[in-house]
Amino acid sequence: MSSNRACLILNGEVEDYDILKKIIESKHYSTIIAVDGGANHLYKMGIVPNNIVGDLDSIDKETLSYYESKEVEFTKYPSKKNETDSELGILLAIERGNMCIDIFAALGGRIDHEISNIGLLHYILKRGAYPRIISEKEEVYILENDELTLEGKPGDLVSVIPFRGDAKGVTLRNLEYPLDEFDMEYSVPRGISNVMLDNICHIDVRDGCVLVVKIK
After folding, report:
1. Within a 13 Å sphere around the CA of 20, how many CA atoms are in the beta-carbon half?
2. pLDDT digits (tens, 9 = 90+) for 119-129
3. pLDDT tens, 57-73?
């Protein structure tokens, strides 16, 4: 698997630009892609992306002019198209060899956008890459017939939520409420608000798909 990791910033809500800037800069991304109005967020943080993609209808004129002066690559699409701008940003990131994709500014705002953005995690996973959503307060992962060792600190909240159906054989370790080969029923919130007991915890799903949400 490629070690390259992409930062994809969308046009959702950002609560604290200082915190988000520190997170992005600490990751040393090989590629930073702004999806349409996500460029406005990067501009406010003083971060120059490698590429801006979309129909460009949500970018402020000042932002557009600044990034043109920085010779940022623009990939413009018509407003009427089958794919969303976010999908196009994901496909561009994968095309450029990034098999780990972190998505920022995906939460908050319109609930239809938020739900759709969470669904993008599976869209990326199906294409052989490893996604997560990161905000100032949360990290969201997706697991399908797989396992995850999650880093954090004692007291961090971790929720494991069945996604796309029941999740069978779920095992949780180093959490306050452990599970061993437990079958989680879709739509039953049995895995909400667990608590990390150490600096790492382990989630294993034998058959099915779950979202893993860590609250920092």
Report:
1. 28
2. 999 999 999 99
3. 899 999 999 999 999 99
Residues 14 and 84 in one domain: yes
pTM of the predicted structure, to 2 decimals:
0.91
Q: What is the C-alpha separation between 177 and 191, in angstroms, rounded?
A: 9
Give the model's confidence band at 3: pLDDT under 50 very low, under 70 low, under 90 confident, else very high: low
Q: Structurally, how many domains does the chain consist of?
A: 2
Determine how many CB atoms are found less than 10 A away from the CB of residue 44: 14
Measured distance CA(41)–CA(104) in Å, rounded: 10
Q: Which domain holds residue 65?
A: 5-136
Specify the amino acid at residue 151: E
- State the CATH number of the domain containing residue 126: 3.40.50.10240
The order of strands in the sheet holding 147-151 is: 147-151, 200-207, 167-173, 179-184
